[in-house]
Automatic annotation (TrEMBL):
Residues 1-91 form the Fe2OG dioxygenase domain. It comes from Hibiscus trionum (Flower of an hour). Signal peptide: none annotated. This is Fe2OG dioxygenase domain-containing protein. It comes from the Eukaryota.
Length: 143
């Protein structure tokens, strides 16, 4: 059975800005991840005792694009409440995120200029919070 909000977006499509996010949810699904190759949305159906690991934009930049930041969203379904807790790993303010030399060469030019995570974060999550769902906070900020 599906209530009136079924199929509505609970949390819009976004990437996380941090390094890595670790999510744990109750047994009500709703999280979807987008395939970076096909654009297709894939329902995430974790087993009861598993964690979901999401690559954030900062790790994507630090690894000079070797891993992609995952677009994800939450869709509403059913009547049971969904609970989800997240551990967001973030660099301390003042530390610069910069791809190491080993990952930068002619075939892999540096994708992003070095940046301070705290500044990137405050740009996206300003008072309006509108930046939360911008395409990529990182691209606007430090390409
Ligand atoms: O509710 C979830 O499982 C995802 C939450 C999320 O993507 C976020 O807080 O950035
Ligand atoms: Fe997220």
């Amino acid at each position: 059975m599906c209530s009136s909000h079924c199929g509505q977006v609970g949390l819009g499509a976004h990437t996380d800005l941090d390094l890595v996010t670790i999510l744990y949810q109750n047994e009500v699904n709703g999280l979807g991840v987008q395939s970076s190759s096909t654009g297709e949305w894939i329902d995430c159906i974790p087993s009861k005792d598993s964690f979901i690991v999401i690559i954030g934009e900062s790790l994507h930049a630090w690894l000079n694009g070797r891993l992609k930041a995952t677009y994800h969203r939450v869709m509403l379904s059913g009547d049971k409440p969904r609970y989800s807790v997240g551990l967001f790993t973030v660099p301390k303010a003042g530390y610069m995120i910069k791809a190491p030399e080993e990952l930068v060469d002619e075939a892999h030019p540096m994708l992003y200029k070095p940046f301070d995570y705290a500044e990137l974060y405050s740009m996206r999550f300003d008072a309006s919070n509108e930046g939360r769902y911008t395409e990529s906070g990182l691209k606007g900020y430090c390409v």
